[in-house]
């Protein structure tokens, strides 16, 4: 008999219908007030100077920054195949997995991240000059996405568009949004854009929160999380 294998991508789709009852469904907000929704994220925002300093040090370790599609092939449809303009990532945390090589270069950033409850994922996201990200939807309702802008070109600064609402990044400022909405990055800037991306479990009532925790901490950790970490380790 063939062994039944939990598949995160199938499982999360089945759960989305239930979670939509607690997220506002089609009327759910695009952006959120950080202080009211996940106030612990403000600690990261206040830590901008040290996070920025550790990013600058990490950027000198160029080989550790991987093309997003090389870490997660499922992202190839939005990262594109244009090798002249890439989207690179520097993973710091994913579903309980901690890539120690990367984390050793950013100890203070990781100490701040470890204080965030419901942490799902954290990484530096680097867009080459002129690299845009086409409109797409995050796959799961159970998390919210935080961006802390670390490097933003002054000329033609790129913008995030969520559910038709624009947000222009500004260095040292943060934004919290619902990644499951249609969103894109419009980037015509001549410089590199870097943000710290942090995914956290969405605040919800007890029962949906327990289900959400099971999906992230058990199903996703041992399927999606494990496969991404395996690729990251193989890349050296």
TrEMBL record:
<keyword id="KW-0560">Oxidoreductase</keyword>
<keyword id="KW-0223">Dioxygenase</keyword>
<dbReference type="InterPro" id="IPR027443">
    <property type="entry name" value="IPNS-like_sf"/>
</dbReference>
<dbReference type="InterPro" id="IPR051821">
    <property type="entry name" value="Asp/Asn_beta-hydroxylase"/>
</dbReference>
<dbReference type="GO" id="GO:0051213">
    <property type="term" value="F:dioxygenase activity"/>
</dbReference>
<dbReference type="GO" id="GO:0016020">
    <property type="term" value="C:membrane"/>
</dbReference>
<dbReference type="InterPro" id="IPR007803">
    <property type="entry name" value="Asp/Arg/Pro-Hydrxlase"/>
</dbReference>
<dbReference type="Pfam" id="PF05118">
    <property type="entry name" value="Asp_Arg_Hydrox"/>
</dbReference>
<feature type="domain" description="Aspartyl/asparaginy/proline hydroxylase">
    <location>
        <begin position="48"/>
        <end position="203"/>
    </location>
</feature>
<protein>
    <submittedName>
        <fullName>Aspartyl/Asparaginyl beta-hydroxylase</fullName>
    </submittedName>
</protein>
<comment type="similarity">
    <text>Belongs to the aspartyl/asparaginyl beta-hydroxylase family.</text>
</comment>
């Amino acid at each position: 008999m063939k062994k039944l294998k939990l598949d995160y991508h199938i499982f999360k789709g089945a759960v989305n219908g239930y979670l939509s009852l607690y997220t506002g469904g089609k009327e759910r907000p695009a952006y959120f007030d950080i202080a009211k929704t996940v106030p612990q994220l403000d600690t990261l925002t206040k830590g901008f100077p040290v996070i920025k300093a550790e990013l600058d040090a990490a950027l000198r370790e160029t080989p550790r920054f991987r093309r997003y599609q090389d870490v997660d092939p499922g992202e190839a449809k939005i990262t594109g195949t244009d090798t002249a303009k890439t989207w690179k990532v520097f993973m710091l945390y994913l579903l309980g997995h901690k890539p120690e090589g990367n984390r050793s270069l950013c100890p203070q950033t990781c100490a701040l991240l470890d204080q965030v409850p419901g942490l799902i994922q954290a990484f530096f996201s680097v867009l080459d000059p002129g690299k845009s990200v086409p409109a797409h939807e995050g796959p799961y309702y159970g998390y919210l996405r935080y961006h802390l802008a670390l490097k933003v070109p002054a000329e033609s600064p790129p913008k995030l568009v969520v559910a038709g609402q624009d947000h222009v990044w500004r260095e040292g400022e943060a934004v919290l949004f619902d990644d499951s909405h249609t969103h894109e990055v419009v980037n015509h800037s001549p410089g590199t854009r870097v943000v710290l991306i942090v995914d956290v479990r969405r605040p919800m009532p007890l029962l949906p929160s327990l289900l959400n925790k099971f999906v992230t901490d058990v199903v996703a950790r041992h399927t999606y999380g494990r496969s991404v970490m395996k690729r990251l380790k193989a890349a050296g």
